[in-house]
Specification:
Number of domains: 2
Structural class: mainly alpha
Shape: elongated
Order of helices and strands: HHHHHHHHHHHHHHEHHHHEEHHHHHE
Distance between the termini: 25 Å
Helix content: 40-55%
Strand order of the largest sheet: 1-4
Number of strands: 4
Oligomer: single chain
Number of helices: 23
Strand content: under 5%
Amino acid sequence: MNATSHCQDYVFNEPHGELPASRHFSSLLFSGSLRNTAVELATLFGISVAAMWPEASAAPDSMPLAEIATLFWCISILRRVYTSYLEAVWFAFPCYRTQPPREHALKKAKELCGRDREQLQTLHDHDLLTMLLVLGLELSLYFHVPGFYPAQSEEYGPLHARLSKLVLNHLFLSFNMYWMHRLLHEVPWLWKHIHSFHHWARHPLSRNTYEDHCLDNLGNAIVGHALAQLVVPLDNTTFWFSRLFRVMESLEKHSGVSCHFNIAHSLQAWLPYAQMPHHHDWHHEGHKGCNYTFTAIGGVWDCLFGTRKIGRADRQARQWATSYDVRLMASTCFKWSQPKPTPAPAAASAGVPDTASHGERKQATRDPLEQLYWEHNSQMTVALVRHKQDQWLEFDHAEHTLWEAMQLLDQSLIGRFQLAEAVRSKWPEHEWLHLVALIHDLGSLIARWGEEHASIACESFPVGCCLSTSCRFAEYFKSNPDEENLLYNTPNGIYEPRCGLENLEMSWGASEYMYQLLKRMDCPIPCEGLDIVRYHSFAAWHTRRAYRHLASEYDEEVLRPWVQAFNEAKSASAKEELPVPDCNALWEEYYHPLCKRFGLSNVISW
C-alpha cells in the first residue's frame, strides 16, 4: 500500500499496487505464521478449558486459573491490536518516524525491517519455542510459587504505598534487564549466538519486539517480571497494570515512531530520566546494535551507568527530545541548529594588533588547494554532515543514465576510461572492479547542482570522534566547532571501539554521495567495490594508518588491501602515458552491457 499523510517532506513510497490480505503487515494478525498462531490459540483454549475444573485452580493465595487464562488472552490480544495501531501510525505519519525514509528503503530479497527470508524463518521457529518455554515458566510459577499471581483482595492498603511498590518493582526489573541486555551485547558468544537474532532488524517496527532467540526471550522473562515479582511482589491490580503496561512499552520502543501516539512513553515523558522510542531505535541501527541504551523501563540505569545516548533527538525526533536529551546536548556544547559556514578570515589591517590564529594569518598566502582544505576541515561538523545527508540523499536533483552522467563530466571522460581499462587489464576476472573504476567518482556531479567544491576535492575523514592529525591540513581542525564538543573529543567519540568503518559517519563529499546512491539502489556490486567507492579518498586510514581503533578485522585484513591496490592503479594511470581510448566504442562493446548485468543501465535519480 502507499502511505499517505498530511505531514510534509515525505518522499518515499511503500510498495505500489494491491497487496493480498495475507501479505498485509507481514500477516500481522496471524503473527506471520499460521502454525504459531494455531499453537498459541490451542494453548490458550486449553488453559481456558482447564480452568473450568476447580481442582485445577488450587494454587494457594493466587488468582484462579480462569483469571490467569483471561490475563494471557488479554496480553495476546493487546500485542496484536497495539502492534497494528503502532504500525498504522508508522505508515500514516512518516514525519514522526525515528529514521528518515531512505533508511527504510526496501531492499531486494529483504523485508521492510532488513531481514531476509532465511532469517524470518529462523525467527518463526524461535517464536514457537519462545511461546512454549515462556508458557511453561508461567504455569510453573503459578503452580509452584504460591501467590506469585496475586489473588484479589478486599483491602489493598494506601494508594501511595502501592504506587511506591510498583515503582520499586519496575526499577528492580529494569536493573536486572539492563545488565542482562548489556551482557548480551558485550559478551561475544552471547551476542553471536543469541542476541544478534533480534538485531537482524536494523530498522525496527513493533512486529520485531518479541522476534528473538528463544533463550533471549526466556531470560528476559526470568530476570525481568518473574524475579521482580518474587523480590518486590505486587498486588492483583498493580500486577495486571504492570504486565499490560510493559507490553505497550516494549511494543512502542520498537515502533519506529517517537511522538504523542506512543501512549506508554508519553505517560512517563515528564520523568527526569525518561526515554522515548528514538533512543532504542538508535540502539538498533549501529554496530552490534550499538552498545548503549539498554534499559527496559524508563532510562535511569543508562543515565547512571553512562550508556545513554540522544539517538535521533537532534534530527527526526527533535520535538520529542526528553529533558535529559536537552541537558546532554547542552553539556556537550551541542548545536541544535545547523552551523553557518565560517568565512575565511581576512588578513589583519596595518597598524592593528594581530590577534588572529596561525591558520587565520596564513589565509592571505594559501594556495587554492590549501584554501579548499581550510574551508573543508574547519567547517565539516557532525551537524553539517547530517544537514548534507538530508539535503542530498533524497536523490531528487536530476535524472540521468550513467553514460549521460559521465558526459556531464566530459573533462574526465578519457581519464575515466583509461583507468577502467587499466584496472580491467590488471584484474580481468573482477568485472565489478572494472565498473567501480569507471563510476567511483561520479559523485562529483553534486558540484553541478550547487555543492561546494571543497566537498569534491578534499580527502574524507570520520566526524563524531577526535579528528586525527594524520588528515591532510589537520591544523585547520582547530577552527572546527566540533573541537569544542566534549562528546566528539575522545578517540572513539560517538562510536564503539572496532565498530567497523561501515558504522562511521564520514565527512560529506562526492565519495559519500556516490556510495549512498549505489547502496540505495541495492546495487549487486560486492561490498569490497562499494567500500572502494566510499573509502578511496580516506587516505588517513588506508595510507597513514589512522583510525585503526575504529576499524574492524574485515576493514584491516580485506578492505585495506583492495583500496590500496585500487588507488595505486589510479595513481599509475594518471602518471603513465596511456593510449587515448575510443570511449564510445568501449561503452557500447563492454561497459554498457556490464552496467546492465549490475542493474545500472536505466535512468538513475541523482
